[in-house]
Write a structure and sequence with these properties.
The structure holds two protein chains of two kinds.
Chain A: H1 2-59, H2 65-71, H3 73-110, H4 115-143
Helix pairs in contact in A: 1-3, 1-4, 3-4
Chain B: H1 3-28, H2 31-38, H3 45-64
Classes of the chains: A mainly alpha, B mainly alpha.
Chain lengths: 144, 66
């Protein structure tokens, strides 16, 4: 009787533990997809900012290259900074998804999620979050 | 509850547990995640293209005024 209870208890604990780790895994994946969409939205905003800035400058009919360059300076900076930021996020995301695939394959083979795998994956997710935070901040500053 | 009943229930409990576990696992492997795991190289590529076009557009404006 005691043994059966113990086995059942162990089973429930293992299931809860695995359910929790699995939830963390899918939460991280969802968060990465949101960041990807957020990045696209910020880029869209930068392109709109560039179009508006350019339209203003075109309307001013500036005669020299130097004047035109000065007029769109902020837009050029916003676009350049965005490119750097998106490249960093892209690399961090690629590293996350690459390891996510590895963890998935390993889990299917072993039917369990290793703790060190989950930690490594969460650390890669952390790098994406950091890169995104820096990107949003830099774009905001460039537009001001 | 006696031993015999528990022995009968245990396989059912195990099957249920396995079904729950499989459900959790499959639910997570949705189409969107699968797409990213198999083709991570296309992530944000369209956005990078848009930014490069914007850069060219601005350079063209500075050069020609249009």
């Amino acid at each position: 009787m005691l043994v059966v209870r113990f086995v059942l208890l162990l089973l429930v604990a293992a299931l809860l533990g695995m359910g929790c780790a699995t939830a963390q895994l899918s939460d991280a994946a969802e968060r990465m997809i949101q960041i990807e969409r957020g990045t696209s939205a910020v880029v869209e905003g930068v392109v709109v900012f560039k179009d508006a800035t350019k339209a203003d400058c075109v309307a001013k009919k500036l005669p020299t290259e130097a004047e035109r360059a000065a007029c769109v300076k902020q837009a050029v900076r916003a676009v350049e900074i965005s490119e750097v930021g998106v490249l960093a996020i892209k690399a961090a995301l690629a590293s996350f998804w690459e390891f996510y695939g590895v963890v998935q394959a390993r889990r299917q083979a072993e039917d369990q999620l290793r703790r060190e795998d989950l930690l490594e994956l969460l650390s890669r997710a952390g790098r994406v979050v950091t890169a995104y935070g820096e990107f949003v901040k830099a774009v905001k500053e460039a537009k001001q | 509850m006696n031993w015999t009943l528990l022995e009968k229930l245990l396989p059912i409990a195990l099957r249920t547990a396995k079904a729950i576990f499989d459900g959790v696992r499959n639910g997570e492997d949705n189409e969107e995640i699968r797409r990213r795991v198999t083709s991570s190289d296309v992530i944000l590529d369209e956005d990078l293209d848009a930014l490069r076009e914007s850069e060219d557009d601005l350079e063209e404006y500075i050069r020609t005024g249009r």
